[in-house]
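User: Hey, my collaborator sent me this sequence without any context and asked if I could get a structure. I don't really work with proteins. Can you help?
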Amino acid sequence: MIAAREVKTIDGVHLSITLRSYHARFVDSRVSDDLDHSRGCICYIAYVRLSTSSWVLLLGLLYACSSEAQSVGRCALCGMRVDPSGLVAGATGVDGASLAFDSAKCLFRYRFEHESARDAWVSDYYSRGHLSIDAAFFVLGSDVSGAMGADLIALSRAEDAERFSREHHGTAVLRLPDVTRAVIDALFGR
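Assistant: No problem. I've predicted the 3D structure and written it out in structure-token form, which is a compact way to encode the shape of the chain:
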């Protein structure tokens, strides 16, 4: 084995590079038996050593680029991260700010506690598009869970809600006036 060390500075970062050379033999199985089977090759392995401040900078950049750091936000009721690809909900607060919710039941509990929330919407189960809660049909008691467990599943058409309820063992299809505080409390296990 032969080893060589080199120190380089790239954009202000000091790199200590160790280059090691190994001489290895291998057998090429494609060569016929009457030929020499052993061939030599030289393998180079480079080790890069970064200073502590460079590691901190590198890890910080990796975290900033992760999907966890790029989350849409947190639920206005429970504080969980809101996954925009899930069955989310939203509303507009009294100050005009957008409110995000990780589930329909969080939206309804928030509305019962803060009557100032307006323009509330939920995600349609099939299209994942925004659907006004006034126009939605809600399936209760299905085997499909939201981000926080048992939830109301919103659909845009009565036929879709009835079919979904049959296929996913729902117990009832509700409209907005039927979604009471008692229904939401039951979903939260209270």
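In plain terms: The first strand starts at residue 2 and ends at 10. You can pass these tokens on to your collaborator as they are.
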